[in-house]
Amino acid sequence: MILELAGVHAYYGRSHVLHGVSLAAAAGEVISLLGRNGAGKSTTLKAIMGLVRVGPGTIHVDGRDVTGRPTREISRLGVGFVPEDRRIFADLTVLENLRVGARRDGWTIERALDFFPMLRTLLGRRGESLSGGEQQMLTIARTLMGGPRLLLLDEPSEGLAPVVVRALGERIAALKRGGLTIVLSEPNLQFARRLADRAYIIEKGEIRFGGTIAELDADESVRRAYLAV
Ligand SMILES: Nc1ncnc2c1ncn2[C@@H]1O[C@H](COP(=O)(O)OP(=O)(O)OP(=O)(O)O)[C@@H](O)[C@H]1O
Ligand SMILES: [Mg+2]
How many angstroms separate the alpha carbon of residue 117 from the centre of ligand 1? Predict the structure, then answer.
């Protein structure tokens, strides 16, 4: 397993938000973390990145215990995180944003531009002038510049027009074909279903379902209980 969470609890200050989350992703797998607003999807991804206080419970990346380790150490192990608020640098150009993400053993600018050809036409534009979809592509491209082996995407399709969502889904599918392991957080099944091998449903900080998309499709009561329709 490239990622393994076992009984993870997590907190914001005194607020206890995750109550024993267990999940795993094998190399090359796309798993989806589904659940309604406030269910604990982002907190789970932040826990993996060392951005919230965790304990008890353990988080392993590639067999290495990273529980409680600093974020920069976790990203150095090859974990890339695209947070839900798309933190591009508004004052920097597209090219400068990409350079910020660069690492010696990561992607080259050329590779990122070949992967997202639309960014090539925007290289000199400042981040703040981009559309939501362009910002999302740039955020993902910047994270890929770090050469992750495991990519955490937090609601990447949120707020994007349907045509942009389709383009984004196609790019994520291409990353999957390239062998990247991906954890995709999503509020609903529609975007995730074409991409994910398996899904977990989280509700109130607990995993309520884990299985294949086919198993989830066959279980209407679970979908109805825990997912936005
Ligand atoms: N910074 C914070 N401080 C305190 N509580 C927080 C904080 N961020 C989230 N929470 C709480 O933690 C719980 C889980 O939130 P989380 O952001 O993980 O949900 P989510 O599944 O990502 O929801 P959404 O679909 O809205 O992004 C919620 O009850 C939320 O109110
Ligand atoms: Mg969230």
Answer: 34
Q: What is the average pLDDT across 103-126?
A: 96
Backbone angles phi, psi at 107, to 5 degrees: -80, 155
Rounded to whole angstroms, the Cα distance separating 20 from 10 reads: 8
The pTM score is 0.97
CA 128 to chain centre: 22
Contact 115, 145 (CB under 8 A): no
Residue 92, pLDDT > 70, answer yes
Ligand 1 centre from 86 Cα, in Å?
A: 16
Full set of structural domains in the chain with CATH: 1-78+182-229 (3.40.50.300)
Q: What residues flank ligand 1, with Cβ below 6 Å?
A: 12, 15, 17, 35, 37-43, 84, 187
Tokens of 173: 């599918």
Q: What is the pLDDT of residues 174-221, one digit of tens each?
A: 999 999 999 999 988 999 999 999 999 999 999 999 999 999 999 999
As given in the structure block, the two tokens for residue 204 are 């109130």
Mutate to test the pocket of ligand 1, among 14, 34, 41 (most ligand atoms within 8 A of CB): 41
Residue 229 has pLDDT above 70, yes or no: no
In angstroms, the Cα distances linking 111 to 75, 108, 116, 147 are 20, 5, 9, 11
- Segment 130-168, tens digit of pLDDT: 999 999 999 999 999 999 999 999 999 999 999 999 999
Q: Note residues around ion ligand 2 (Cβ under 5 angstroms).
A: 41-42, 84
